Design the sequence.
């Protein structure tokens, strides 16, 4: 039966050559190469649960909240689907960030893989946007407040902001088209775009082959895809789903029925977003209060932390492969990875960037911390304002120092281990040592 | 080990179906699903280890560099400019203009209407109950709307009662706070969140989103956090029956600022 099917397609499309190429393919293996797979499999789970959820969700401002809240009351399968969907989203973005950190710290983005780095960063942005639009669909008090903030940030864009907001809302906020628009964006535009970019991402990977730590730039060194790597990646898939299901079973996420339906005068306290949006919220909290005016037109304070900061950050991240080329004066193609100890400066830059993200993320829950530690919230705001540059640079320097130290120790240790000394008794009864060149 | 894990996976998957049919607690559904996946992960991992396949197979990497295909055949070698003359640029430009039309139609210059407040509108609670000037005790706070327009967007107002005479307002707002009743827009001027927290002891309003602080006695001036300007104040009066009414709509825009909203 299978043989017949294989024959059928091979006759028409010559598929066997491709199948053979994939099965015999050699794939470099390292635990850190599975991080991207975790993200991929979370996306698979997101699509599967997401398609199911479209059958129970109603993208209408009058019924949206009720349609989602109904899943939590007397519909265990629906509740599980929503839990799994939300946890997968949180996991998805986290896996992308960790995967990206691995790429960064091992310099896998260098030529000829710059384009794949750019595609990956775009997918991170799109994944976060998909997360945010999905989070907003239930029309509950928490996500509605997030939308309101997003609307204020959109409106803050000079000249075009108000137009963009009105187009999205179908009128002034909260317009009648807001939920249907978010719905289309969440279930169609963004996931389809991610799907296309994902195909490109994997296509480039197959064509260019994966990087590796083994210092042999002429060969791909690793495991055969079939059956060795296939079993491993199947295990990675099942493990990803298992972890997300455990989270879904054990920890309730975003219980909207407890927040209630959104109205523009009702808010939850605390009002803190999902983790991947928290750095933006933190930036809004630390941002300035000054409103400047250009020819009588105001530039609201949210424009700087809400629009300029993320745009500049992502521009730098996207341009990073070329910045690296400038810094290292190395434009040659590389298939062999640099271990973090091989380039301490890169570890420092990466650690500083991540620390800045962590500080902004922490700042997004300053009110909860103020309550827990009995500190005035304004003092925390100043602490984080200072920590943002000082802490990030400090941690960057520390990480670079540690990486250099580890590298030096390994090198010393390696040299010691390779040194062979012959001891000879001499006439005086002592020992002479003589270095022996290892064969 | 491998077979054991697979049997666990099958049983857990069947258990998952049973849990769904029995309307069991969702934690059972997800938990059994997790167990089934864990079984698969273990079995696949164990099989992979059992293979003891080599991890140092070497496959030559593709030669890099330009693909350098054969030159184009002569009949395909006409230069682009000869095929697509300058007029084609004109066509491109004209079509680009056409493509702009739908975008321009979508993007009309935003016009912001005022709120639902009108002169003489009674202040009512979200339940629709009108309020008299002494309904709130000193220190009290209530979210209010114009009568008949509860839930109207951008129109939520915080009515606060303070000691008459404690509130310091600019001269042009004389009489806006009858019997110590002051009313401010509930929509934060920073990012639009409802300013929903009130610290009675210090007469301060807090926004739960980004912790802006507004001084109730000083015309809701921002005294902390990122809000750039005061919460707009709604002028109040008392009608013949003793109910609180609005003197009119807000005199400043409500909510966060934007480019087209010239203050």
Sequence:
């Amino acid at each position: 039966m299978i043989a017949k099917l294989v024959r059928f397609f091979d006759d028409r499309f010559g598929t066997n050559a491709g199948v053979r190429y994939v099965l015999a393919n050699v794939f470099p293996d390292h635990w850190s190469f599975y991080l991207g797979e975790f993200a991929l499999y979370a996306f698979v789970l997101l699509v599967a649960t997401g398609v199911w959820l479209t059958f129970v969700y109603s993208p209408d401002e009058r019924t949206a909240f009720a349609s989602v809240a109904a899943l939590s009351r007397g519909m265990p399968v629906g509740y599980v689907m929503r839990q799994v969907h939300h946890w997968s989203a949180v996991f998805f973005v986290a896996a992308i960030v960790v995967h990206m950190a691995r790429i960064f710290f091992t310099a896998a983005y260098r030529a000829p893989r710059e384009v794949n780095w750019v595609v990956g960063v775009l997918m991170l942005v799109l994944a976060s946007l998909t997360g945010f639009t999905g989070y907003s669909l239930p029309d509950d008090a928490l996500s509605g407040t997030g939308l309101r903030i997003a609307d204020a940030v959109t409106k803050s864009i000079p000249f075009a902001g108000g137009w963009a907001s009105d187009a999205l809302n179908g009128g002034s906020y909260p317009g009648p088209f807001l939920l249907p628009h978010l719905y289309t964006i969440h279930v169609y535009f963004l996931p389809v775009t991610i799907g296309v970019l994902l195909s490109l991402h994997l296509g480039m990977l197959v064509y260019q082959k994966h990087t590796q730590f083994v210092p042999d730039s002429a060969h791909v060194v690793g495991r055969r895809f079939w059956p060795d790597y296939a079993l491993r990646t199947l295990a990675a898939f099942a493990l990803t789903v298992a972890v997300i299901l455990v989270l879904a079973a054990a920890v309730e996420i975003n219980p909207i029925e407890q927040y209630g339906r959104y109205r523009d005068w009702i808010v939850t306290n605390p009002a803190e977003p999902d983790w991947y949006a928290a750095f933006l919220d933190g930036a809004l909290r630390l941002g300035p209060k000054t409103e400047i005016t250009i020819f009588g037109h105001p530039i609201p304070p949210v424009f700087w932390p809400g629009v300029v900061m993320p745009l500049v950050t992502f521009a730098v991240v996207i341009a990073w492969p070329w910045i690296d080329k400038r810094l290292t004066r190395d434009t040659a193609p590389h298939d062999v990875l640099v271990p973090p100890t091989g380039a301490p400066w890169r570890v420092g830059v990466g650690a500083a960037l991540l620390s800045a993200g962590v500080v902004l993320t922490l700042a997004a829950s300053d009110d909860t911390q103020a309550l827990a530690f009995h500190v005035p919230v304004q003092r925390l705001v100043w602490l984080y304002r200072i920590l943002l540059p000082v802490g990030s640079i400090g941690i960057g320097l520390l990480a670079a120092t540690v990486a250099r130290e580890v590298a030096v120790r390994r090198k010393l240790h390696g040299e010691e281990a390779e040194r062979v000394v012959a001891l000879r008794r001499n006439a005086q009864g002592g020992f002479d040592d003589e270095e022996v060149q290892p064969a | 080990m491998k077979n054991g894990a697979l049997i666990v996976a099958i049983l857990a998957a069947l258990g998952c179906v049973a849990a769904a049919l029995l309307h069991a607690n969702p934690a059972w559904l997800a938990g059994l699903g997790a167990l089934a996946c864990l079984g698969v992960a273990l079995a696949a991992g164990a099989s992979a280890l059992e293979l003891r396949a080599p991890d140092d197979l070497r496959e030559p990497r593709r030669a890099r560099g330009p693909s350098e295909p054969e030159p184009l055949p002569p009949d395909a070698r006409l230069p682009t400019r000869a095929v697509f003359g300058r007029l084609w640029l004109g066509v491109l430009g004209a079509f680009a203009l056409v493509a702009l039309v739908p975008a321009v139609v979508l993007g009309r210059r935003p016009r912001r209407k005022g709120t639902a407040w009108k002169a003489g509108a009674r202040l009512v609670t979200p339940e629709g109950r009108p309020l008299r000037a002494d309904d709130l005790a000193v220190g009290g706070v209530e979210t209010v709307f114009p009568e008949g327009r509860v839930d109207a967007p951008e129109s939520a107002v915080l009515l606060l009662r303070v000691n008459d005479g404690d509130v310091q307002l600019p001269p042009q707002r004389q009489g806006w706070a009858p019997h110590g009743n002051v009313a401010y827009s509930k929509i934060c001027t920073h990012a639009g969140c409802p300013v929903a927290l009130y610290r009675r002891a210090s007469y301060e309003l807090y926004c739960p989103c980004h912790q802006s602080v507004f001084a109730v006695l000083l015309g809701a001036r921002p005294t902390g956090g990122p809000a750039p300007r005061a919460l707009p104040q709604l002028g109040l009066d008392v009608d013949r029956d003793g109910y609180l009414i609005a003197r009119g709509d807000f005199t400043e825009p409500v909510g966060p600022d934007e480019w087209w909203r010239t203050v």
